[in-house]
Amino acid sequence: MAPGWMQILLVAVVAILLFGGRGRISSIMGDMAKGIGAFRKGLKDEDKPADKDELVNITPKKDETKSSS
User: Can you spell out the DSSP letters for 3-55?
Assistant: First the structure.
């Protein structure tokens, strides 16, 4: 059975994405490695306790001008 035009188009798009442009695959792998490194650094930073100065209070303060009925 011969491949249809959709299969040929899909293979052509994948080939262009992988092999199109100079160093396309190496740049994709480099970006992936940077992302993994940033993820690992984030996990490592999460383990150390945060200083009190680094914490930010985001809890909204109660509006004391309103009187309760």
Answer: --HHHHHHHHHHHHHHHSSTTHHHHHHHHHHHHHHHHHHHHHHHHSPPPTTT-
